[in-house]
Design brief:
heterodimer; A: 305 residues; Glutathione S-transferase Yfyf (Class Pi), Chain A, domain 2; four-stranded parallel β-sheet; 14 helices; B: 676 residues; Rossmann fold; Alpha-Beta Plaits; 19 helices
Chain lengths: 305, 676
């Protein structure tokens, strides 16, 4: 049995390097919600599900299994805030639990790099699923101190729900988990065209073919711009990065004039739970630097952190 | 002793055992066929015949150009008459091809037909080893020797005449069941026609027009529905289901349960009850495109015309009872069961339209997507009796759609939903409906998104062309998604035109899904009551896809129409007529001939494990009260599946006994496979 109410926090690559505010927000909300957050020392890249797996599936599994082993040694489920990390770790964890042949193969190779053995004792969780299902809109109501009156364009990204037969969270064709959760924070979700398609970053596209990535993204932004949300809400630092740098790129190169704040679900939830706007870190992001959430207090009188 | 000598010794010793038991010294005649160059071009037939003549018990061995010709058959007959040959081996083509020719010949000469052994040296030798003549000849030698070994111990098998019950059961009263029932009755056979719904006619009555001639289906089918309803030899039971089926080919006993209509037969069909009924539910017959009352008649021409009460929907306000001018309504009616004896059964249970709900990207049936409908619903809208007065109106707002997109292969050719097959009918009905709609509304855009247009056969390509000519647009591509634009609230069909490799977003006021034909609900329980096999798609499996697509896996039970696989109306009618003819044959003749080539059970060896029953596809093995298996001689198909299943060797099939097969194997394997 793994420790209850404890998570091994898998940081991944983009969040700690580019968006430390997401990391701070996540720790803030999880600790406020009564979870213990453990550091995963010597954790590496997840590694990314698109690129690494395409080149060498076995080594992709070995590197992921090594990260899983670190959490197994901590005796805690992994918490990720990134669709890519979730995609890799959840899939490898599930696959190695079910496939003895690959488990043995991976363990053989793990021996070569240290004291690691995949045992299959933990689960991998995404912060959106923990908030959406475990805490739930019914539970978050009790702990928030303010709500925000705003319209959000929600971007689910790809790996959080797809493939559905492996993720086993919710249908990827009409998900509602985030909509229902943020409704409790006062947010109104606005539907836009082709909402559930890729942001254009994943699968190595952004690194390999920037133009193709921006073509996909430009279409995405066009669809979002039609419905004029107050901000874009995502659950993945890589999508976050794409929305940030992509808007900037389109403004500079394609005669656009976008300035939609890009906000991760952890940042939003942390604000509603009392974290000061300055720690949400919008001022350090490229877009929506001056955006003010403008929350209004609910029920409780509690000092902001 | 060489291997060869040892082998011959073995055979001799095995052979002698039988001879002493039978007191019937085998005199074997071997005939090798040239089949023109088919066999003789590759296999050295003279060598084969010469070798055969050296085998024990062979009294005659020769080769001839065409054994199936009259002189060839005469050779066999002569050998029986002149030389006293009492077992024959013909090395030619397959048993299916000409086995009958030779067994008939020896039967004419007074020998039991099971004394003939067919050896296939054409498919097994000359055709597959055309470039290896020596090897082909060697193989032929072995196969012929194996055939001789096998022939040596062949025993007579009795053919028994079993009287049949002159009556038939037809399950399902759609177009297939009606056709079969009527054809049987016209042959003088009493028919019990059992229909699950309250009316007969099935899906055909729901259609607006039939392709390719755009005829009125009601006009086509009503002579048949009336004919069946009034036929003196047809006993019709609606609202009825099969409860139990016992017996086998020629003699079945069937039990059905008839649900009450709650309206007696003196109903005049005046409709007063429905007019005053306060309850409304979606009409099943109208595919949900209109409402019916809790007491209702499915449609104006419904047969029987007697109204029926939906007990689940009824609130028992008793208004109808009070208002009925002839006091026909009686809520106290009870279900009744009936049993009858029949000789043949025809299953004409039809199909269901595939429910596209599970294809999530199409959002069928979801809130906000009311304008995504199926072709059957469109047919209902177009039909003369529709709520929309035969107009095509959007379900969401009742307006005439300016752009209509039809999507093909919904539930067909789709591995994700588990249906690999092409329904084969959807292209035709979609093109038909598209043409009708385009002709009605020339200003509207009508588009069909397809993977392939499949319109084979007479008149169908012409139909396709006629639709193109009136301006129906065809786009090759399977739509990935139907989206509702959040701003304009319009439907968009996302599809790639794969011919020009262009991604498209088609504006659609109405989307029509060409849903597949799938096995009808409840076919599982029905199939298991009938003990018939199903295909992996869920339809009932035919006996032979080419040579007998009408017989089921069980003798005496025939398939008519879409229950065997998707079919259009013409195909269904032809199939149903064939089913009637096949089902009638044993009943008209009065008996069936059954070869008693059936397994015998050594009850001393039997451990009553029941494994034989589990592998018996035609369900010919019953378990007796003491747990021992009993073979139903009539139902048995002589497949032999029970033999290898039996762990103790207690069940043995006549002429396929272990030692007979061993003899055959010895020759083929060169004696090496003998293990004592």
């Amino acid at each position: 049995m793994v420790k209850e109410n404890t998570f091994a926090f898998f940081l991944g690559c983009i969040m700690p390097n580019r968006y430390p505010a997401i990391e701070k927000s996540t720790k803030f909300i999880m600790e406020k919600l009564g979870y213990e957050i453990l550091e995963m020392e010597r954790a590496t890249c997840c590694p990314a599900p698109g690129v690494f797996r395409s080149f060498n599936k076995v080594d992709w599994m070995v590197a992921a299994a090594r990260n899983l082993c670190i959490a197994e040694q901590l005796d805690a489920d992994i918490l990720t805030v990134c669709n890519g990390c979730f995609g890799t770790l959840q899939e490898v964890n599930k696959h190695l639990k079910e496939n003895e042949e690959h488990r043995n193969l991976v363990n053989e190779r793990l021996k070569l790099i240290g004291d690691y053995e995949f045992k299959g004792t933990i689960n991998v969780r995404h912060v959106a699923e923990v908030l959406g299902y475990e805490i739930g809109p019914w539970g978050i109501e009790d702990v928030i101190i303010r709500k925000i009156n705003a319209k959000a364009a929600i971007h689910y990204g790809c790996h959080f729900l797809k493939p559905t037969r492996i993720r086993e969270i919710e249908s990827s064709e009409g998900p509602t988990i985030i909509e229902e959760f943020v409704e409790a924070l006062g947010i109104q979700s606005v539907r836009f065209n082709e909402q559930l398609t890729c942001c254009g970053a994943g699968g190595g596209v952004k690194a390999y073919d920037g133009n193709a990535s921006m073509t996909i993204f430009a279409e995405k932004m066009k669809n979002i711009d039609e419905v004029k949300p107050d901000f874009i809400l995502d659950i993945c630092p890589f999508c976050h990065l794409q929305y940030e740098t992509g808007q900037d790129y389109l403004n500079k190169n394609k005669n656009c004039n976008y300035d939609y704040p890009v906000i991760h679900l952890s940042q939003l939830t942390a604000y509603c739970m009392g974290m000061n706007q300055e720690f949400i870190g919008l001022q350090y992001q490229l877009m929506g630097k001056d955006y003010i959430f403008g929350g209004f207090g609910v029920n409780k009188e509690e000092e902001a952190a | 002793m060489t291997v060869k000598e040892e082998k011959i010794d073995n055979i001799k010793s095995l052979g002698e055992k039988v001879v002493s038991a039978d007191n019937d010294e085998p005199q074997i005649g071997v005939f090798v066929c040239h089949c023109g160059h088919n066999i003789a071009g590759t296999v050295d037939v003279a060598k084969v015949a010469e070798y055969a003549s050296t085998l024990p018990n062979v009294v005659k061995a020769e080769h001839y150009m065409f054994m199936c010709s009259k002189p060839g058959v005469q050779l066999i007959k002569d050998s029986i008459e002149d030389l006293g040959v009492n077992r024959t081996v013909v090395a030619s083509c397959s048993k299916n091809q000409h086995g009958r020719t030779f067994t008939n010949a020896i039967e004419e000469m007074g020998l039991n037909k099971h004394r003939h052994q067919q050896v296939n040296v054409r498919e097994y030798c000359s055709w597959v080893h055309q470039k290896e003549k020596e090897k082909a000849t060697d193989k032929a030698l072995k196969l012929v020797e194996a055939g001789v070994n096998r022939a040596r111990k062949l025993e007579d098998v009795e053919t028994r005449k079993i009287p049949t019950t002159k009556a038939a059961l037809v399950i399902g009263a759609g177009i297939a069941g009606l056709r079969s029932a009527h054809d049987l009755a016209e042959l003088g056979i009493p028919v019990y026609l059992v229909e699950r719904n309250s009316t007969i006619g099935g899906h055909m009555t729901q259609l607006n027009k039939t392709f390719p001639t755009l005829e009125c289906p009601q006009c086509s089918i009503s002579p048949l529905t009336n004919g069946v309803a009034n036929h003196p030899l047809i006993e019709l039971h609606t609202n009825a289901q099969i409860k139990n089926v016992e017996g086998s080919m020629g003699n079945f006993e069937v039990e059905i349960e008839i649900k009450p209509r709650y309206v007696k037969d003196n109903c005049t069909s005046c409709g007063e009850c429905a007019a005053h009924c306060p309850v409304e539910v979606p009409s099943e017959w109208d595919s949900g495109m209109s409402m019916r009352n809790a007491i209702y008649k499915a449609y104006p021409q419904a047969i029987p015309a007697t109204y029926v009460r939906d007990k689940k929907a009824c609130i028992e306000c008793n208004t109808c009872i009070n208002i009925c001018p002839v006091q026909a309504i009686d809520f106290s009616m009870q279900p009744e069961t009936k049993t009858f004896k029949v000789g043949s059964i025809i299953v004409a249970a039809g199909y269901d339209e595939y429910d596209p709900t599970e294809i999530e990207p199409y959002h069928y049936g979801q809130e906000g997507y009311e304008d995504v409908i199926t072709q059957l619903k469109l047919e209902r809208m177009l039909s003369p009796t529709s709520l929309t007065n035969s107009q095509v109106l959007r379900p969401s707002d009742g307006k005439i759609p300016k752009s209509i997109v039809m999507i093909q292969c919904v539930g067909s050719r789709n591995d994700q939903v588990g249906n690999q097959y092409c329904t084969g009918v959807c292209c035709k009905f979609a093109i038909k409906n598209a043409r009708i709609v385009k002709e009605m509304y020339p200003d509207s855009d009508v588009t069909i998104c397809y993977i392939d247009v499949r319109t084979p056969g007479l008149n169908f390509e012409e139909l396709y062309k006629s639709a193109q000519e009136v301006g129906v647009r065809f786009i090759r591509g399977r739509p990935s998604e139907i989206l509702k634009d959040p701003v304009s609230e319009e439907l968009r069909v996302i599809v790639e035109d794969t011919l020009s490799q262009t991604p498209l977003k088609l504006k659609a006021d109405l989307v029509v899904l060409s849903a597949a034909m799938v096995p009808p609900e409840g076919i599982g329980p029905l199939g298991s009551k009938l003990h018939v096999l199903r295909s992996k798609e869920g339809f009932l499996k035919e006996f032979h896809i080419k040579m007998n697509p009408t017989l089921s896996s069980k003798g005496g039970i025939y398939l008519a129409g879409a229950i065997q696989g998707p079919k259009d109306i013409s195909e269904t009618v032809a199939h149903a007529g064939n089913a009637a003819a096949l089902a009638a044959a044993p009943l008209v003749k009065g008996y069936i001939e059954k070869e008693m080539l059936i397994p015998t059970i050594d009850y001393d060896l039997c451990v009553k494990c029941g494994l034989c029953k589990t592998v018996c596809a035609p369900a010919a093995i019953d378990i007796g009260t003491d747990g021992s298996p009993i073979v139903n001689e009539i139902a048995c198909k002589s497949c032999g599946m029970c033999m290898p299943a039996c762990p103790t060797g207690a069940i043995q099939l006549l002429n396929f006994l272990d030692d007979q097969l061993l003899d055959e194997i010895i020759a083929v394997s060169g004696g090496g496979a003998v293990c004592e």
